[in-house]
Amino acid sequence: MTDVLTLTNVSKSFGALKVTDDVSFAVPKGQALGIIGPNGAGKSTLFNLITGNFLPDAGKITFLGQDVTRVPAMTRVRMGVGRSFQIPQPFEGLTVFENLLTAAAFGQGKHEGEVEADCALILQDTELLRRANDLAGSLSLLDRKRLEMARAMATGPDLLLLLDEIAGGLTEGECQALVATIKALHAKGTTIIWIEHVLHALNSVVEQLLVLDFGKVIGIGAPDEIMASREVREIYLGLEA
Amino acid sequence: MKHAMQVTVTTRTRASTVAGSVALGLIGLGLILPAFASRSLIQDLFFILTMLTLAQLWNLIAGYGGMVSVGQQAFVGIGAYAMFAGVILLGWDPVFAILLGGIAAFLLAIPMAFFAFRLQGAYFAIGTWVIAEVTRLIIAQWKTLGGGTGTSLPREATADIIGVATIANLFDLRDAAARDVLAYWLALALAVGTMAAIYALLRSRNGLALAALRDNDNAARSVGVDAGRLKWLVFLAAAAMTGLVGALIYMQTARISPDAAFSVTSWTAYVIFIVVIGGIGRLEGPILGVLVFWGLQTAFSDYGSWYLLALGLIAIAVMLFARGGFGA
Ligand SMILES: Nc1ncnc2c1ncn2[C@@H]1O[C@H](COP(=O)(O)OP(=O)(O)O)[C@@H](O)[C@H]1O
Ligand SMILES: [Mg+2]
Questions:
Q1: In chain B, which residue's Cα lies nearest the Cα of A153?
Q2: So what's the pLDDT on residue B21?
């Protein structure tokens, strides 16, 4: 099976703090991978390295075998890597629809006319259609999180979709709707990496689970095995052995 | 698809027809105005239109593009000097030599952007100012164009500018007044052209990208917006247009000196004042701002430095208490 993404011995420090510590893993095409780990473990940083928002100090990142370690973020989006930000970063002065239009037009390199219908569908799937004409700056935190997801989808993430803690704060019903949306994307063959603390939602979608702690990969495997492992229970769930 | 269409989406990429018809009416009125307006009104309008164009261009790079340049006088100055060079050294008609002004400003903008784009925030502003000063000092060494004291357009050149004779006949004017009408029409064309181009830009894909960059450049890059390319595009285009305006202003004055043509007060400070009081980052802002500025200029400019002080205080007050400008 071809690997959409590989990280080989990737490291990143902020000053003296090693936030990504010799990380290696691969994501096969079509897989949904979950990432868990305590706050500050370096999960979001990992996304920023994959998208090119940060450059690693060492190691190599490839998309479909192509070395992208030094490729700028803008180019990686156009290669088909869409991402949501954990702390929403909407274009506040644009409407919700324009946020998507910008993402679709530039992420896919198309004219607005070609992507308008797609954007409307994505707004519908992410339950944002009723806010389509509102300025993104006027959205509640929940809707901002929805917009993150919607905008990531709009960029055309044919290669890889990265979702960073999008289920927090949702009601059970909303969470199920979100899971259904992600499952539908996954069913269409989209490769997904999802960082999430809401474990039942995460585990209902992903086939593989990766555990990160202090910037290190401390486990990767089937969700039930990972969840059952002593290391994860100690470190992630904070249970005393 | 079927469900999605229940909501009608509106985007800035679609134009408003009402505003369009009003604008067309105003342009028509502007065109026929010389038939019945006094010479001094035409001169006032020339001043208003050229300052308006400069303000729209500064608003484009600073208000929309986030590049707060205080070196725009470099483009006014180089544009004006290139026009003079075309007339004096090459014997061109001043109207055609204006085009040289646009080209020269465009060429100067390339190294300027190359250096200034490496600088952030206040350093960018200072960088643009320094480059403008350096350009002024270099131009002041150009002895054929009058060096530090400057020079005038030769009489032969101003006597038979293309179109002046026709205008003189048409409106039964003397040549000097006909030249003012010609300059006014060119200023009108530049102002309308500039605003139409900015309007079109803001309603295009690139307009969305500019707005996105201004709101959040990290997120903009993360959806595929090429920030660097867009900044270059906007900066170079605004520089070329600023050069055309500079050339036109000095075609009308017919006399140039490095200190006047590269004046940071006249071509950048006033322009920033206009944009700030009118409302930065809005197309209507400079229109309102230039009218306020012209009113103040007409009423108080005899007071010299007190006048400048008052302008500064007004600008600061607007920035502190009415950030959107008077137009908000
Ligand atoms: N841009 C940055 N500059 C400095 N430190 C950072 C930066 N981004 C993240 N960090 C630090 O890196 C560590 C990991 O952060 P992050 O990747 O956001 O963790 P997680 O997403 O797992 O909660 C934290 O200690 C955080 O403070
Ligand atoms: Mg995080």
A1: B223
A2: 84
Last residue of a domain, one of A105, A124, A156: A156
Percent pLDDT > 90 in chain A is: 80
Amino acid making up residue A155: T
pLDDT value at position B197? 95
SS (H, E, C) chain A: CCEEEEEEEEEEEECCEEEEEEEEEEEECCCEEEEECCCCCCHHHHHHHHHCCCCCCEEEEEECCEECCCCCHHHHHHCCEEECCCCCCCCCCCEHHHHHHHHHHHHHCCCHHHHHHHHHHHHHHCCCHHHCCCEHHHCCHHHHHHHHHHHHHHCCCCCEEEEECCCCCCCHHHHHHHHHHHHHHHHCCCCEEEECCCHHHHHCCCCEEEEEECCEEEEEECHHHHHHCHHHHHHCCCCCC
Cα of A211 to nearest chain B Cα, Å: 25
Per-residue pLDDT at B1: 39
What is chain A's mean pLDDT, rounded? 92
Q: Using N-to-C axis directions, what is the helix angle for B94-116 and B73-88, rounded to 10°?
A: 140
Contacts of residue B93, Cβ cutoff 8 Å, sequence gap at least 6: B87, B157, B161, B162
Q: If phi over 0 gives left and psi between -120 and 50 gives alpha, with beta otherwise, what is residue A9?
A: left
Binding site membership of A40 for ligand 1 (Cβ less than 6 Å): yes
Between CA B277 and CA B286, with CA B282 as vertex, the angle to 5 degrees is 45
* Residues A183 and A208 both lie in one domain: yes
pLDDT of A210 strictly over 50: yes
What share of chain A in percent tops pLDDT 70?
Answer: 97
Which residues on B lie below 8 Å from A150 (Cβ)? none
φ and ψ at residue B74, rounded to 5 degrees: -60, -40
Helix (H) or strand (E) holding B152: strand B151-152
**What pTM was computed for the model?**
0.84
Segments making up each domain of chain B, as ranges: 25-264
Tens-digit pLDDT profile for residues A113-148: 899 999 999 999 998 999 999 999 999 988 999 999
Encoded amino acid at A188, one letter = K
**Encoding tokens for residue A75?**
């180019």
Contact A171, A198 (CB under 8 A): no
Q: What is the torsional sign of CA B18, B22, B23, B28? A: positive
CATH number for A69: 3.40.50.300
User: What is the residue range of A121's domain?
Assistant: 88-156
For residue A111, which amino acid is it? Answer: H
Residue B309's pLDDT is what?
82
How many A-B residue pairs are in contact by the CB < 8 A criterion? 109
CA nearest to B218 within chain A: A53
ipTM: 0.89
Ligand nearest to the CA of A21: 1
Which residue, of A156, A179, A208, is where some domain finishes?
A156
